[in-house]
Every structure is written in C-alpha cells, then in structure tokens.
Specification:
The chain is mostly helical. The chain has helices spanning 2-16, 20-32, 46-70. The two termini are 16 Å apart. The relative contact order is 0.18.
C-alpha cells in the first residue's frame, strides 16, 4: 500500500511538472499494484477498517483524476483483478 501511494504521488508530481508521459507511467504502475480490497486476507479491527476505507478512497480519487491525464478510458480501476 505504501508503494501504491508513493508511485501515485510521484506520478502526480511528474504531471504537475509537465511530464505527462512519466506521470502516466507512474500512475499506471501504482494502479497495477492494486489487487482487490485492502487487507482482504486479515481480520479487520476498527483501525484497519478505517485504513482500508482511506486506501479505497485514495485509489478511487486517483483513478478518476488520472483518466484524463493518462488518456485512460473506462479500464483503469481499483476493482479486484
């Protein structure tokens, strides 16, 4: 999950600096790491439930914002692969 956030952050910085190709590559790499629901294979307590919700919101926000930047159609998502 940290690598997802790191790559997405780098991707947005690259886009902000005008390097759309590198931004698209990094954002695509971050979404390629996403597989299903966060912490799906562990018993969630209150704290992990909150972190899982935060990660799902982050992925949805980044995916939605990335589509026009990266030229993605409806294929990029945070859904299980």
């Amino acid at each position: 999950m940290r690598e997802f956030e790191r790559l997405a952050g780098l991707g947005y910085r690259a886009v902000g600096d005008g390097d759309h190709a590198e931004g698209a590559r990094l954002l695509g790499a971050s979404l390629a790491l996403w597989r299903g629901a966060p912490f799906a294979d562990v018993q969630l307590g209150k704290q992990l439930e909150m972190e899982a919700a935060r990660l799902e919101e982050s992925c949805a926000r980044w995916t939605s914002a990335s589509r026009p930047i990266c030229g993605w159609g409806g294929t990029a998502s945070c859904s299980p692969n």
